[in-house]
Structure formats: C-alpha cells, structure tokens
C-alpha cells in the first residue's frame, strides 16, 4: 500500500497515517458492474460479507518521510516566469521564525538531482505547529477515547508567498507559510475493482492533507512607466499651483 494517495496531484498532497483494508467478494452469479438499480439483489452493499485484510493500522515513522515541492510563478502584467529551483526561499514557522533557508547550495546538498525543495513531514508539521499525537480538535473525532490527529487526520494549508528581491533585477524570493486548519480532519476511501473476480477492495485512509496556495506581489522596473509617472506628477503640481 502506497503512503501517498493519489500518487501525484496539483496544489495538494495527501499522506496516509492510518489505514484499514476490507475485501468484498462478489456475490455468486452476480456482476455488480451490470447492476442498474439498488433493488437488484446483486447491488453492492457494504453490509455484504467482507474479509478484513488489514485492521486499523498506523504507518510507522511517517514523520521521517520526505516531500519534494516544485512550484513556479508567472507575472500577470510582466514577462517574469520562474520556477522555485532557481530562486531562494525559506520555510517559516507559524510564529514567524525561520526554520530553514533554501538556496541552490542547500538543494544540491540534500540531493544533487533535486528539482524542488525537499522537506521531511516532521519539518512541515513543526512549521505548522502540529503534533500528530495531540488530541484531535475535529468535531467527528472520538474525544472520549482520546483520538489523535494521527488517527483522525489533519489539514495543513501552506501559503507560498513571492516577492521581489530589493535592488536585484528580475530576482524573486519566496516563503512557505504552513498553518493548521483547526477542527478539520481528513479521510479518503480508495475503491479498487478487481477485474479477475469482480470483487472490491476498500482502503480507508486517514492522514495529512497538504493544500498549497500561491500569492504575492511581483514586478519589474520599466523606465517608460517611471518617466510617465514623473511627467504626470509634474503636470499635477502645475495645475495645483495655478488653482
């Protein structure tokens, strides 16, 4: 069972912390894919006989897994288009302190072939101020049993903020700003249809959902725009003087 599900995604990533797997055999003489009505006796129901392949289990050392983040930015009114692999950045914690500075040298030190920024899951959790073993704040969590975020799941929004580097033409930098969405849990059920015998396998996953949002203000110096602004300012001064 892969820890990341789905294996790739845009603007989000999900890592399993808890999972269980059930196998549902097709009823004799039935093909559930040909069923057209819930009244059909072959209609698939979760109450059908099932076999537990994997009871509720936790992924060991999920905090040590690594995540590579690639992103890029393009100016709306400018010709700037650049990817994070050629920019400097930093991972900033929820309280505003810098956890790690990111440069080409640091990327190459961890992996000479890295196309993006590599973090451990623990680094992201620490930056967001999250602890998987803390009691879950989700309304649906079993608080009487002390259910944790590792069991219920957790959602972390990571804002990627871009800005120009002062006095450096066409040079941008960025910051990762992770934050826990309080009260949220996250689960997803992976449904696998087995073509060999028409059975179903359900993987119930709870875990860490990372949601990425990009924003910032970038620009480039244009002499014509500066000249136009100066002329307009002088004209306004003249008008005000004569008024």
From TrEMBL:
Which InterPro entries did the record assign? P2X_receptor
Subcellular location, record wording = Endomembrane system
**Keyword Iron-sulfur: yes or no?**
no
Question: Which Gene Ontology MF annotations are present?
Answer: channel activity
GO terms of biological process kind: calcium ion transmembrane transport; signal transduction
Cellular component (GO) terms are: endomembrane system; membrane
Q: Which family does it belong to?
A: Belongs to the P2X receptor family.
The protein, known as: Uncharacterized protein
């Amino acid at each position: 069972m892969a820890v990341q599900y789905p294996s790739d995604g845009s603007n989000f990533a999900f890592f399993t912390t808890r999972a269980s797997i059930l196998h549902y055999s097709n009823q004799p003489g039935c093909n559930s894919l040909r069923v057209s009505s819930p009244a059909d006796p072959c209609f698939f129901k979760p109450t059908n006989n099932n076999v537990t392949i994997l009871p509720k289990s936790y992924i060991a050392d999920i905090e040590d897994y690594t995540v590579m983040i690639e992103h890029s930015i393009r100016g709306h009114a400018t010709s700037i288009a650049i990817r994070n692999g050629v920019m400097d950045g930093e991972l900033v914690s929820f309280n505003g302190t810098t956890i790690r500075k990111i440069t080409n040298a640091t990327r190459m030190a961890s992996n000479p072939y890295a196309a993006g920024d590599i973090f451990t899951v623990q680094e992201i959790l620490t930056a967001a101020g999250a602890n998987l073993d803390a009691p879950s704040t989700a309304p649906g969590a079993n608080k009487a049993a002390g259910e944790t975020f590792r069991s219920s799941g957790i959602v972390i929004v990571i804002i990627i903020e871009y800005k120009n580097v002062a006095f450096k033409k066409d040079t941008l930098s960025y910051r990762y700003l992770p934050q826990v969405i309080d009260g949220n849990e996250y689960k997803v059920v992976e449904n696998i249809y087995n073509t060999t015998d028409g059975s179903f396998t359900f993987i119930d996953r709870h875990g860490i959902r990372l949601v990425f949002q990009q924003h910032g203000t970038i620009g480039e110096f244009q002499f014509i725009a500066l000249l136009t602004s100066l002329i307009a300012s002088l004209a306004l001064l003249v008008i005000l003087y004569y008024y």
